[in-house]
Amino acid sequence: MSAAPGTDPRPPEGQAEPEARIFVGRRLEISQISTALLAGSSVIVKGRAGIGKRTLLGKVREELAGQRICLAPSVATPKQLAADLAEQIHEAIGLEVPERLIPPRFRAVAERTGNVEFRHIRRTLSREPVADQMALLLRALDHRDDVILFVESLEVPPTQAEYLAQLSERCQLCAALDADNRRVRIQRLLWKFQLTVDLKPLVSPDVRDWVEQWLDTHPVAFESPRIRKAFIRGVARDSNGIPAAVQGLLDFALVERSVTRATLREMSHDAALTYLDMTPVLVILSVGFMALRYISRGMGMKELMVMAGVGTSMFYLLLYFGRMMRLRGR
């Protein structure tokens, strides 16, 4: 039997609509990712924590919603992954459900119409082992070339990584990954991505546009119009273009009774911090101490040759670290 769509997208009665997040910039990245996905490639979005990877994936999913079947399950646990996928695949494609999973009171309607609503099989399906649920879902995805699986984070345990690897054989993937991730268990997945997009911080005009839009909808009091302008400049400067830091600074202003010059001096957010790589400094200090040792003993031809070798090595080390830091900054 096939499961028929039947989910009401509206929020439950009495629950407020969630606040729409402000989204600025990233037009080039959205176009690049959407084009690659429509061409049949899988895409991985990399960047530091707080850079906006998940939000970008959500925007791409909205962009492609009318052109592809877009699945976005939670990967928190294997059971949650299977449950979310089952419901989303049911809505978009329809599941071929074994008769034993259909409660007896719904079987007559299912036999007559050939369909069964997902809410009628949710409980019985959830009682199945996760491996059996995944096998059912994989069969539903066989021979399809219009399904994209969006994964908010590849920071997953081995079981979820294995299921994602199986799903990648049947559909495209569009996933987010922290730039400093070195976990071996996801290496099996990485080679399946044809395109890697490295997210960079937002440029200052985009951050200012974000702050202006946010201030239009949030009641923040300022000591003077000049302080308001200084606040916008301060958020753009102190956030370093990191979306998580921008939102954190805005939330900080929201709880203030009035934003003053003193408030501006206190503004900071951990997501905007950058750390200096001290390795080149340590190398220079080590070489310096070595050079002082030779100088203190007096230098002959042999010592000069040693110093020349050390100096050459230090030059190439500094050149290497300089290139590495430049690549990180791009």
Automatic annotation (TrEMBL):
Which SUPFAM superfamilies does the annotation name? Answer: P-loop containing nucleoside triphosphate hydrolases (SSF52540)
Which InterPro entries does this chain map to? P-loop_NTPase
The transmembrane segments are 271-292, 304-322
Keywords for the protein's UniProt record, in alphabetical order: Membrane, Transmembrane, Transmembrane helix
What is the protein named?
Uncharacterized protein
User: What organism is recorded for this protein?
Assistant: Imhoffiella purpurea
Lineage, please? Bacteria, Pseudomonadati, Pseudomonadota, Gammaproteobacteria, Chromatiales
